[in-house]
Design goal:
The chain contains 3 helices and 6 strands, in the order H-E-E-E-E-H-E-E-H. It is of the alpha+beta class. This is MmcQ/YjbR family DNA-binding protein.
């Protein structure tokens, strides 16, 4: 999955807007993070702990949690992973932020 594909999907979700700058682009709803560019080839998706555990169990080749993010409501997605799984994570993040 590319950042352009993430942009197309994320901005198709009601109220989700792109912000940031090249090299650190991010998408927000109500000024709350949904997904952002992280290390090269990865994005961070802000999901609840239960959703994070479900994504990790279902798609271990796509998602991970680096030690620095263990205490945070975030999961790291490998852009070479399952694009449908990444879209689902973004949708979960959008729904969580939208209801906050």
């Amino acid at each position: 999955m590319t950042l352009d594909e993430i942009d197309a999907y994320a901005t198709s979700l009601e109220g989700c807007k792109r912000k940031g700058h090249p090299g650190r682009v991010a998408w927000y709803v109500h000024d709350r993070l949904v997904v952002r560019q992280d290390e090269p080839g990865t994005v961070l998706v802000r999901v609840g702990f239960d959703d994070r555990e479900s994504l990790l169990a279902a798609y271990p080749e796509t998602f991970g949690v680096p030690p620095r993010w263990e205490a945070h409501l975030k999961v790291q997605a490998d852009l070479d992973g399952d694009p449908d799984a990444i879209r689902e994570a973004i949708r979960l993040a959008w729904a969580m932020q939208r209801s906050s």
